[in-house]
Amino acid sequence: MADPETPVMEEAARHHLARVLRLRAGEAVVATDGRGRWRWCRYADGALEPDGPLEEDGDNGDLTARQLGKVGGNMVKRLVERGEQALTEDAEQDGTAD
User: HSE of 98 in the Cβ direction (CA atoms, 13 Å)?
Assistant: First the structure.
């Protein structure tokens, strides 16, 4: 992303969030320029709405372990939710749901 201060997604990023990750309105996303500037945003109607201050992580552009943990934790949470959803759908199709 060119500028996380005013996060505008390119079509490829929009497609990835909507079709690949299947984000729902209101879900948290980190917008970053890859050079140390980033901010939390919320996904809404195919766009990103800023949901936190613009952060700048010094000269080296590295996120801290704590910041990476938040991003990774959200990813793991989403993967677990998707897995549970897929298992439930499979069980319903097989007629083995509780």
Answer: 2
Strands 28-32 and 47-50: unpaired
Identify the burial level of 48 via C-beta atoms within 10 angstroms of its C-beta, where 0-12 means exposed, 13-18 middle and 19 or more buried.
buried
Tens-place pLDDT, residues 6-65: 999 889 988 888 888 888 899 988 888 888 888 899 999 889 999 989 988 654 445 566
This prediction has a pTM of: 0.56
Three-class HEC string of the chain: CCCCCCCCCCHHHHHHHHHHCCCCCCCEEEEECCCCEEEEEEEECCEEEECCCCEECCCCCCCCHHHHHHHHHHHHHHHHHHHHHHHHHHHHHHCCCC
The widest CA-to-CA distance across the chain, in whole angstroms, is 56
Asked whether the beta carbons of 63 and 72 are under 8 A apart, the reply is no
